[in-house]
């Protein structure tokens, strides 16, 4: 064939890089062949295996019929959905919101990936400040937008916290977006009020949009995490992104929201959704209303995840791993035994123990001579307590 495929040069920046969870597929196939179907204990992708709560499912079923003639969904979300989010924000964080300050999104992944294309000027060297390790759509979305990811290395010696005073003046001048994630995936760190205030002050000083990914705000093991909108000065510069995927085991529903007290920051969401895709299906929004209105299932899952972590953590310590119980999320960020890399340890777990996980090097980047994930692996604690106990037993055999 003589046809030469024209490809956007920004797209080429991410096409050659596999999605982290696809990179270990061949090893998983070998492990399944060795241990047999159903014997692999998979802590890899962070997809809850627990059922979506019955009340949410029932509301979705009812809504399919109730919405049979409702037509296209509004690009910004239904009034009822946005009011439900406002009520939840008030109850959970004490933050008063108006429906006009909320936009429905296709979960947080879609929003996080597209935000750079809304606010970065392509090929001008503009920067998004990205936690490292962190959620891949932050950096991939930045690359597709023609921006430059500048990684904030999250290291154990700094309690896995970003150091804003380490950002030089030239970088700060070019920075247009700061991605913040608390509770943080995958380290499990929860940012205290003082650290959040540092982020807000930095963004206001340098005219940077603060994107606060709060998808794990209801998955915590101790003090309740704060929303960025509880911090003085955040109203003008911040966008909150949240989702029901992990909070309410609704990964298949793909529904969440973006919220901001600054209406200018939300205009792009409404405009782009209106021009490119339909809004989130109304019956899914109705199911989401039921989810935002219920706290009991969140309390139940916090206890469940805590039990799973407690079942596995002692065994990891016994085999020489470095780890502390996370403050939030359902991830374990595990320092591998001395003398091994993340890739080596992850492969050993998979092929010798039948335990799948993600090498930290796949969800972090080498930056300024450091790859923060080189000595870590990630466990997503999505398996039952029984399977988790089986994994712990295998580790010690």
Could you give a short account of the major beta sheet? Answer: 7 strands, mixed
CATH topology of the largest domain: Aspartate Aminotransferase, domain 2
Low-pLDDT regions:
none
Task: Say which CATH homologous superfamily of the largest domain is assigned.
Answer: Type I PLP-dependent aspartate aminotransferase-like (Major domain)
Q: How many β strands by DSSP?
A: 12
Average residue-wise pLDDT:
93
What is the H/E order?
HHEHHEHEHEHEHEHEEHHHEHEEEH
Query: Helicity, in percent?
Result: 40-55%
- Quick one: CATH class of the largest domain? Alpha Beta
Shape: globular
| Structural class computed from helices and strand pairing | alpha/beta
Beta fraction: 5-15%
Spatial sequence of strands, sheet with the most strands: 2-8-7-6-5-3-4
Per DSSP, the total helix count is 14
Question: Which architecture of the largest domain does the CATH hierarchy give at level 2?
Answer: 3-Layer(aba) Sandwich
- State the domain count: 2
Q: What's the N-to-C terminus distance?
A: 55 Å
Cα-based radius of gyration, to the nearest Å: 21 Å
Reconstruct the topology from this structure.
Elements: H1 9-15, H2 25-35, E1 41-42, H3 54-66, H4 79-93, E2 102-105, H5 107-119, E3 127-132, H6 136-144, E4 148-153, H7 169-174, E5 175-181, H8 193-206, E6 209-213, H9 234-237, E7 238-243, E8 256-259, H10 263-276, H11 282-292, H12 296-318, E9 331-335, H13 342-353, E10 355-356, E11 358-359, E12 376-380, H14 385-396
Parallel strand pairs: 1-10, 3-4, 3-5, 5-6, 6-7
Antiparallel strand pairs: 2-8, 7-8, 9-12, 11-12
Helix pairs in contact: 2-13, 3-11, 4-11, 5-6, 12-14
